[in-house]
Fold these 4 entries.
Entry 1:
Amino acid sequence: MRGTTALSEGLSGSTCRPRHVLLSGCSGGGKSTLLAELARQGSATVPEPGRRIVAEELLGSGSALPWVDLAAFAARALDMAAEDRQKATSARTWTFFDRGLIDAAVALQHATGAPVAETLAAFPRYHRRVFLTPPWPEIFTRDRERRQDLDEAVAEYDRLLSAINALGYHVTVLPRTSVEERVRFILERLGEP
């Protein structure tokens, strides 16, 4: 992994960034829409590393795509998520991450067998509550950047749920409801009005 060691050394001074909130879960479950609404309402947000990587790879050689080389894609996602954490230093506001280090580590484990806990050992933790979008077949779509089908997305969700629980986070599954209600649900559980 290109810069992960150097980045993790810069991040490891803190064991937790309590205002860094991870949004994870099923692909096609509404995370990007939710992130856009959180940003619209004034929260700091960080877009999904995977989508950014796929967009870049489709413009170039396309070698680090999840459907071409999952291990290379996951390693690159881990590096990008580490950079995102390093850049997002504000402690005054919530910062919401659309996927992040945990998602990348779970993908890396799926591709290579590298244990999630060992991959993440040098990185600070997110807020203790992680929000997951559940599988939602009615809104699931495939596109140029998301080529997995719903069954693959559900399998990924199951891996994420298991790993996040094993890491000791408090998992909160988001309701299948409007984006405005999801934002309200998240902020209430974070203790915001």
Note: The first strand starts at residue 20 and ends at 25.
Entry 2:
Amino acid sequence: MSSNYEETGEVRENRRDTVLAEEKRQFGGMKFGSAFFGWITATGMIVLLTAASTALGAGISAANNTDPGQVAAQDLQTVTIIGGIILAVILFVAYYCGGYVAGRMARFNGARQGLAVWLWAVLVAVVVAFAGAVAGSRFNILANLNSFPRIPLNEGELSTGGLLVLVVAAIITLGGAVLGGLAGMRFHRRVDEADLGGSA
């Protein structure tokens, strides 16, 4: 009796693997619709996390009766390093969330969904930069929004250090989005395994 049960379980597992392979063939690949909503999520998380970090910094300064301007003037290098670390954490967490949303929505190919979220960010940045160059700086939306974390770099003045900062930011956001996409996809794999184990 137990051997029949094991054989049935093995057949069921093989059938499920076949179904999953066919589902992936039909519905796998990069899904730019899911990635768009992932990018929207990442953008929203950047705004929320930036606001939270700003409020936290203001609260700490008020509690200690310190003037942020005086602190920055006294130890500019330390403030810049701390700000860079906070910016890196915000970008990573935001794009991890965006990749996770895209991976959950698309179900397959989580790394590709994360990459697609990142590509949406690059595309939007290029379009906004082009619109700002053509229409003038007053139409540069990202420069006029104080809610977004700003890379300490003047537009149009890309030094070697500035390029390094941009490359590091691109790597952080790409890594966060891909890892988030993989995590979102793994949720569906766990659901598939539970369905396999619980079926009669």
Note: The chain has a mean pLDDT of 75.
Entry 3:
Amino acid sequence: MSPALPEGDVPPDDGALPTSVLDGAQRRAFGVYLHVPFCAVRCGYCDFNTYTATELGGGASQAAYAATALDEIALAARVLRDAGLPARPVQTVFVGGGTPTLLPVDDLVRLLGGVRDAWGLDPGAEVTTEANPDSVTPDGLARLAAAGFTRVSFGMQSAVPHVLATLERTHDPARVPDVVRWARDAGLRVSLDLIYGTPGESLADWRRSVEAALATGVDHVSAYALVVEAGTRMAGQVRRGELTLPDEDDQAAKYELADDLLTAAGLGWYEVSNWARTPADASRHNLGYWRGDDWWGVGPGAHSHVGGTRWWNVKHPRAYADRLAAGRSPAAGRESVDAATARLERVMLGVRIAEGLPLDDLDATARATVAGLVADGLVDARAALGADGPRRVLLTRRGRLLADAVVRALVG
């Protein structure tokens, strides 16, 4: 099961936002996240808010989903307009899940059309969909590109069959080069997502996966350490001793190997778990999260943030559809970010990206700790001294491995 929603204030039924969201709105980019909560099967490690098609019916069904999500887009446009926010064309759209490409291409095109009709798309907008390698065709990818999609992120996870089997992934790894080629032929930028630290995965297995990803010529790779969340099927396997998780040294060795291989191939890190060949290949949508921009999350369980106000939708697709059918906001809870939380998040997110965190964003106590972090090899000395521009906290590779410890040192 996916994790419980956070606690928060009860939002108004009409979704109205406080006037505080207007502060600085013109300086913040606006993006849209579209959650598609369907998968062909649920993988044993997954704790995302997803459902198989057979679990749902009625207004929550896969067939009805696009129309339901369009209702929320219409509500979102009304809420933002009534709040007095300036008209801002959408800079980025990210369709995630689940497996968005389980929806018919026409439904994905309708959803993007709804976003375009509600706010307009910036001429250079980045429009991404996630996809599984076994859920796309050359024709479908070409139609998405023709409709305005610019990028696809494939869940490759591994090139090694026994690792994929442990993760309960269903695709054939031999298909990955084909889908990358199809997407690029359609004019789409392509990212591959990898997972390291699967029980039973050797360092040689991991090398094989990274090298296979690079062999496709892809210009963006995400590499995430496997986290086994409570309540998942894999957590039960670990608890019963059926699977053994790797230790921290194994995880660190795999991260360093990935960084070595990706860097040698010309991809530079721009966020702790993400590498891109050029700045244009980076995920602008995800950078918006890390920089604290505004976004509206459409779909069951989706989270949104506008001007320091955050909210999250009800999790179950049936409850989500019922609320929208009744003309009510699907939001389940809401919170306003106070100054202390905003400071913590600015540090936590800012240090994760390669542009670094400006020292001016830290208070005097935090600035005093930076010298010690440099001495410990966690923060780049030249960046901290301002040798190449404004002084900033920029993680070394060792610092990336210990990013949480750097955050704790900076926030006290």
Note: The chain has two domains: 19-291, 338-412.
Entry 4:
Amino acid sequence: MAEHIARHSPLGGFAARFAAATRGSGGAVRLAELPYPAQINVRLDPKGPAADAVRLALGIALPVEPNTAVRGGGLAALWLGPDEWLVVGPAGTAGDLESRLRGAVGAYHAAVTDVSAQRSTLLVSGPRSRDLLSHGIALDLHPRSFGAGRCAQTMLARAQVILTARDERGPGFWVLVRSSFAGYLAQWLLDASSEYTAPGYAAQGCSASQ
């Protein structure tokens, strides 16, 4: 008899605490997990035929400008290096997305690898999201420097992450972190957000804009 294996997120136990922090800040910061997104690592020559084949298969082109991201059709392609990208899709689509990419590159010189289990994904959003992340990151997160369409591999609170700015419904970021560091980073974010959840903060400061 086959044994059913349940899938558990490293961040599964943080949902209630994230929700409480979000409520406590009056919406100044929002913390949430984006569970189980598809994550496919792609390596190829950006000037070769494989890149064109991937563009046709996904409906979006792999970005060639360093530290940029392209979105479309429910997918995001994040630049990780001159010949490396991370393609992110909705939960439950990893198998299909990997198959599409493998079919597209065919016999071309390229590598397509499902790395969905490698990282957990956090959403950090709200008017104070940049302030919150700036407590533990060396990047300039001002919209002029790191606005929509930007991404970076960097360190956040001494944890290696992929950070990308999202552009829907106001300021916000995806934080992709190694699953083994997910609990640590979640706790750090909760601790760092405490100044926005202090009594009276929601009434006094949550309307501030950046």
Note: Residues 63 and 79 are 6 Å apart (CA to CA).
